[in-house]
Amino acid sequence: MVTLFVALAVGAVLFGIGLYGALSQTNLVMIMMGVELMLGAAMVNLVAFWRFLHPEVYAGQMFVLIVMTVMALEMAVGFGIATGRFRAKGSVEMEEARELKG
Amino acid sequence: MAQAVFTGSFGVAAIWFGVVVFRTSSMVRSALALLFSQAAIGGMFLAMETEFLGVLQIMMMATEMAIMAIFMVMYMMDPGGLSEMDMTHQKRASLAAGVLGAFGALAVALLAGWGPVEVQVPAATAQVHDLGIEIMERSMLIFETTGVTILTAMIAATAIAIQRRH
Amino acid sequence: MMLAALTILGPLAAAAMILLLRRVPEAFALAGSAAGLVGAGFAFAGVSGGARYGATLPGLPGLPLRLVVEPLTATFAALIAVVGFLVMVYAVGYMTGEVGRVRFYAQMSFFMAAMQTLVHANDWVLLLAAWELIGFSSYLLISFHLGRPDAASGATRAFLYTRSADLGLYVAVFVLVAKTGTSQIPASLEVGGAAAVVAGLLLLLTAAGKSAQVPFYGWLQDAMAGPTPVSALLHSAALVAAGAILLIRVYPLLSPGVLLAVGLLGGLTALVAGLAALAQRDLKRLLAASTSNQYGFMLVALGAGVPFAAIAYLVAHAAMKSSLFLGAGIFQQARGSTRLADLGGVAREQRWAFLGFAVAGLALAGIPPLSGFWSKDAVLAASLAGRFAWLFVPLALAGTLVTGAYIALALKSLWQGEGQGSSVSGMGWMGTGLAGLVVLAVALGLALPPLARLLAAEPPQGMVVATLGTLFGAAGLVLGWLVPAERLLGPLRGPAESGFRVGGGFYDLVARPAFSVARAADTLDRGIHARVLGVGRLGLAVAGAAGNFDEKGIDGLIAALVGGTRWLGARARTLQSGLVHKELLLAVAGGALIFALLTIGLF
Q1: Span A71-76, mean pLDDT?
Q2: pTM for the full model?
């Protein structure tokens, strides 16, 4: 019981830190780091739920695998974009990315 | 009880390293802090008796963070963080968002009635075996979809990153 | 029967053909009047043999149109047909080279047809219609010379005078038809009492207007602006005869009081018009006044109670007066004017024409054995034998005196002077017509006894009156020849020249008040018009204001809507900063909102 709450609390705080980072950083790579943290927090929560509430349902672990896959993919595509951006503009600072201004 | 302590310690470590990620101005140190944070998360998995996932997490994150460190050095203006520039914006809004998000999740965690807590979990090998059965039987579609998604992402990333010949 | 119908149909067909074909109008006109003459002659012969024809045509409901050929109507028809034919022959010569001959002959033929219809009418509706038509024809023919201003004013004056007098005819017809319930003329005359008196007086009013009696005789002089054939036919023998014909036809209706009025009016006219004739300086106007004078004699005969005398005088006068006019026309062609001053000495150039003119003039003055002597004798004898002999005889004798005087005046003016050797074109035709009528003027005296037998009347005779009449006539001639024109009238010259106006004449008594009433009505009408326009403008102003308000209101609303939407859009645009972190913030906020909604939805 306590462990469940502890894990959930940790997940909550990590999520908050990740959100802060994703919103406050100017660099694309740093933003991605924030997203990684948020995904990690999600994984913590998922594992806690599986372990303490429904250990017989392995869909929980499946979910965690999927989240991990998503983390990896997101990094891959994100860095691909960063590369393209860097080649086009010479930096990956999001402050300068105003092309979509309407 | 011990499980709670271990989980809590790994959790605190994860949190502390997460904070460091955004407080340090050196890029490489950010990447490494993130690595340690993710590793602490993997430790939490281990403490919660999901060995397979824990190991997977630590392994994957190690590789990913290393790659990230390389990319940071490639693309960052100031990888060493020696220029003392403030590379953040909309600090108050994001702080508010983060605090709100954390408190929201905490509120849900504390206030929701989760029901009875299971104490016994299968052994690690049994877990792995059951997870494999799960993947191959019930969640086959998800598995295959994930595979296709990975392929798509690979192709997409390559396509974006390829040098254009003009 | 059909031949009798030719009397009307001949001239009518001629008028139609002339208007349709517009070529050789003279031929058609002559053919039409010849056909009319044949028809009238046939009808007259038949009636003398004792036949009587009638025809009924469908008219208004309950009021069919009737035509009748009986001794009286056949006499009038024959007279009009003969005079009309001869005048038409004359007109061929007179109108050679004139502009608008198609119009002239068509109108003359139409007039002939209308006049014959009037003479033959046996019911009031047809008579009224024919009455109107002859008035209309007279208007058209007087104003024949379209360019001359006196033609238009003369025609208008004629029309106004006769039309105003026609009111009496209409009211009398209404009274008679209402009283008796039938529109047949002989039947409707059988009323008595007040209705008869009223109808009789009204008919007298109309006859006075049409036959140019006092006080309506002014129009006839102005009507002389028309061509001379018109004056010869319409304004001496036919149109002005319609008034006398009307009175003769309704004679059974007239009560003694009305007859007194008729005779008095006729006698007064005979005197006044004769004096006016003396004052004239234009030959045709003199002859016009003479026509009024002569018709006064006819009315005296009627008033004395002997309609046959009036009929006889009408027949004779037609021949005499139209001869005089035809002669005047020849003189007009010779000298180019009808003023007595311009015509001095024309007698010496146109000797044959002057001979005819003189013979007809002497006949008019009543010199035996010309036809005028016989007819004037009949009138004088009638007035002596009638009721108010003490009144009528002096008037008739005075009229005779004046007649002789103005005839002599005319002859003197034509004779005195130098001949100027002018030539007149169309003399052949004109001479033929004139000669025919002069022969009639001479010989009609012989026809009077047979006519009396036909009409079942006693011709009044008397040696005393015959001698008196001749004496007065001769005295008049001598007076007119010897005494200069200026001294002839003496103190009456001024009034005579102005036409014996009373109280300023018709202009001051009738026209001026009518004009002021018209002006007042016009002002009122303008006022109403202005008010109506004002209402309209008010309506327009209200509509304009409404439209304005509507436009501004709705436009304003729409503009406000548009502006508001634009402003909103501009504000919303600021969200699209293109900055990634802002977008991320928005995404997070949206996600939190959805999460909150879902959570609330759970409860």
Answers
A1: 92
A2: 0.61
